[in-house]
Amino acid sequence: MNPRVKSVKPLVDYQLKITFTNDAVG
Fold it and tell me: Could you list the residue range(s) of the whole structural domain that residue 11 is in?
């Protein structure tokens, strides 16, 4: 896997988690 992709994936997962939480709350 591309090191750059590996470093970005946690950020993407975090964004998805935030979005999912906001949808669940709001």
Answer: 1-26
